[in-house]
Amino acid sequence: MHHKTDAFDKFEEISALVKRSHLSFSDPKRDYEVNDSKSRRNEADVAREAWITKSRNLLSEIQDGLVVYKKGHKFSMPNFADEAEMLEWAGVSFGEEDSFKLQKSMKRLAQLSGANGVRFAGKIFGTQKDYWIVTGSLSTAEEF
Known about the structure:
- By secondary structure, the chain is of the alpha+beta class.
- The chain has 5 helices and 4 strands.
- It has a domain at 60-144.
- 44% of the residues lie in helices and 15% in strands.
- The chain has a two-stranded antiparallel sheet with strand order 1-2.
- Strand 1 and strand 2 (66-67) form a beta hairpin.
- It is elongated.
């Protein structure tokens, strides 16, 4: 900005000075690595990282060293985004985040159980936890 006529020369000069300084930079992965303050991490940061790890497992094809998705397994599942939109018109909304996580969970359930199809049936509000109800059908009968 200040050296419009010789900007390239000034850039090369700065580059040569940086190269002579023998500085080594590492790309930090977390903010506390930059600030060197692991002790400053509060409970909210720990809870956030736990939630991210838990949510990431819904997208993972490998869990505990085992491949959980079977290649070639076909099943039917309605587009939950469309169903969530219809429910929202009726005044029932789970929010975008929960709807996305529910859709991924339903897909994972169909893969793990070998179900031919799954469908969202409802939500039960409990005193300790809330329960999401998904119905499905298996090609073979299970013995209990």
